[in-house]
């Protein structure tokens, strides 16, 4: 399965026929600029190209009234003055004799893509369409939108394919009120929109675009609005919204031509499985963003257990509270703030490489000491045969008694060879194996090798019985996160341990509420994931963790497994590291009280240094 690109050149036909400064920005170049950029980057050629079809009258009728569809059909025979008069009856709309054909193609493109994905013909895809749709309502055009393409696609997925839970993420500068109106009482569709709001002073100037609009009737809690009340929101603000609002709910239950074209390219690259480029800028959410996120969380809390647990559990310490003695909470060892959150450091050589160079030709490599015939890998995942030089391997192994045995030395040589390929930009991600008795020592060598060969900031997520190497420098270049410790402890801002959550809901809360905020705040250029003795993770949970961490460091993720791990675990990790979606975790569950307590304790301890942990603004005291 691959990635589909759905498009039709006829969608460039509709255009403004009279002077209207409000509508002139909606023009054919919105599509052609994006398509040209896809071709320049070689991305169109990597996709399965599908030509859009027209949506039928019955398919349009899934969300629009027959009278409205008939009205738009009649625009095909109207003259310019009649088209202008009709357009004036709606807000920010123009009609053209080609509008009906173009709008049917735009809606049909979404239907084609839904069918292709849900029948297994492709894994994912992008529909490049015009006119847009998310402002269109049941019987009204609005904001350049004629037919509500996404809403029609969602209704089609329910009717034809029997889906019962659909998530719509609406990422646009404007609120998609049309989608909200169409599904606000439907609990089968979770609608999430983040948009510029400015306390109602930005178009479409609607009270129902605010955070307290949460749906109605049976759909209460299935409309989620995140209104931005300040302009200039950055990467940190959007990542905070992902981690503290969108993803918890999802798991539980462009008119600027240059930026539009670039956004389309990045979307297609991600759908194709290419690693995401490193984020730029300080990873510190602004106060306005935190206010919006907290307002949305508070509005949604009555309907979502994951938010209820977090919001009602007392936080021991936070940047906005004081200790019982009246003193501010102490800062943990490691400095007053994360180095990545300080004035922007010069990018490391490896980060420069990730930003400037194309993705490596070898996406994922598996380095095993003895290939297993039962290991099933995707065709483009390479089984590594090379190994580091014997003399070099022995030099790295010499300080560690557990690496003296031949099997451990062989595994170490393969890991060093793989790691060098990743650091040199020849390989994007990889999986290596080591004997269980040598897991800690092998991980220590991997960290030291990474730091001495180009990595400036290294994130290590250690699962199971793996202690932080005692000789690892406390210089802020390594963030050590241990999931599987005996108790929750923040020994420094760069050394954090937490017990392995007992429930799937607790594991998700730990990843979204602790691991990812710390990781994005740290901004590593290399990620190590070590599944050590007694790690206790099932394959789907390990796959989800690897998939989530793949968004960091340009996808430079190395997973270290024990040699006696099942071939199925190596196979599933290889698939997610090359860009496939992780398998389902099974039935959803909430975190246990113990897991919530451990998580909130650590968040309280770490929030003063790691601003990405904040999900509510500072209080002025």
Automatic annotation (TrEMBL):
GO terms for biological process: epigenetic regulation of gene expression. The keyword Hydrolase applies. Residues 25-249 form the Histone deacetylase domain. SUPFAM superfamilies: Arginase/deacetylase. Residues 312-323, 334-343 have a biased composition (Low complexity). It comes from the Eukaryota. Keywords: Hydrolase. Residues 312-343 are annotated as: Disordered. One of its GO terms (molecular function) is hydrolase activity. This is Histone deacetylase 10. It comes from Macaca nemestrina (Pig-tailed macaque). The gene is HDAC10.
């Amino acid at each position: 399965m691959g990635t589909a690109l759905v498009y039709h050149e006829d969608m460039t036909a509709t255009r403004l026929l009279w002077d209207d400064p409000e509508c002139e920005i909606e023009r054919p170049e919105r599509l052609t600029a994006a398509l040209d950029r896809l071709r320049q980057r070689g991305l169109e050629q990597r996709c399965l190209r599908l030509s859009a079809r027209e949506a039928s009258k019955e398919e349009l009728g899934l969300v629009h009234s027959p009278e409205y569809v008939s009205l738009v059909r009649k625009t095909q025979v109207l003259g310019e003055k009649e088209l202008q008069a009709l357009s004036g009856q709606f807000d920010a709309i123009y009609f053209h004799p080609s509008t009906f054909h173009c709008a049917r193609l735009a809606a049909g493109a979404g239907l084609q893509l839904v069918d292709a994905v849900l029948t297994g013909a492709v894994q994912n895809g992008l529909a490049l369409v015009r006119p847009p749709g998310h402002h269109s309502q049941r019987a009204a055009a609005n904001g350049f939108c004629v037919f509500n393409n996404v809403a029609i696609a969602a209704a089609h997925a329910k009717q034809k394919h029997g889906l019962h839970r659909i998530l719509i993420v609406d990422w646009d500068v404007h609120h998609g009120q049309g989608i909200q109106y169409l599904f606000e009482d439907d609990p089968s569709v979770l609608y999430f929109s983040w948009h510029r709001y400015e306390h109602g002073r930005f178009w479409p100037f609607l009270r129902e675009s605010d955070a307290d609009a949460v749906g109605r009737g049976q759909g209460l809690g299935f409309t989620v609005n995140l209104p931005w009340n300040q302009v200039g929101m950055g990467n940190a603000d959007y990542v905070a919204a992902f981690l503290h609002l969108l993803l918890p709910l999802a798991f539980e239950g462009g008119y600027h031509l240059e930026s539009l074209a670039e956004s389309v390219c990045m979307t297609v690259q991600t759908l194709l499985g290419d690693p995401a480029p490193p984020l730029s800028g300080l990873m510190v959410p602004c106060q306005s963003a935190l206010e919006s996120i907290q307002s949305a969380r508070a509005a949604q809390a009555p309907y979502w257990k994951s938010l209820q647990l977090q919001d009602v559990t007392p936080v021991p310490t936070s940047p906005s509270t004081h200790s019982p003695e009246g003193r501010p909470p102490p800062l943990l060892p490691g400095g007053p703030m994360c180095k990545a959150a300080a004035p922007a450091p010069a990018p490391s050589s490896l980060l420069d490489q990730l930003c400037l160079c194309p993705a490596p030709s070898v996406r994922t490599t598996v380095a095993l000491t003895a290939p297993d015939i039962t290991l099933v890998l995707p065709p483009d995942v390479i089984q590594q045969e090379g190994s580091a030089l014997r003399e070099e391997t022995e030099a790295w192994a010499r300080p560690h008694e557990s690496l003296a045995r031949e099997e451990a030395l062989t595994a170490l040589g393969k890991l060093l060879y793989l790691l060098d390929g990743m650091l040199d930009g020849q390989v994007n991600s990889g999986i290596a194996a080591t004997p269980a008795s040598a897991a800690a020592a092998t991980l220590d060598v991997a960290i030291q090798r990474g730091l001495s060969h180009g990595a400036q900031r290294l994130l290590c997520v250690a699962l199971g019985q793996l202690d932080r190497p005692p000789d690892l420098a406390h210089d802020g270049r390594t963030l050590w996160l241990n999931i599987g410790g005996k108790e929750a402890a923040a020994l420094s801002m760069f050394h954090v341990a937490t017990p392995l959550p007992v429930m799937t809901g607790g594991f998700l809360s730990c990843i979204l509420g602790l691991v990812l905020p710390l990781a994005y705040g740290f901004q590593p250029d290399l990620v190590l994931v070590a599944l050590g003795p007694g790690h206790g993770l099932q394959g789907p949970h390990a796959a989800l963790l690897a998939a989530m961490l793949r968004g960091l460091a340009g996808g430079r993720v190395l997973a270290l497994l024990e040699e006696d791990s099942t071939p199925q675990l190596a196979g599933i990790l290889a698939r997610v590291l090359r860009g496939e979606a992780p398998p389902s975790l099974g039935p959803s569950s909430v975190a246990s009280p113990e897991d919530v307590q451990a998580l909130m304790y650590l968040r309280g301890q770490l929030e003063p240094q790691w601003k990405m942990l904040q999900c509510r603004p500072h209080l002025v005291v």
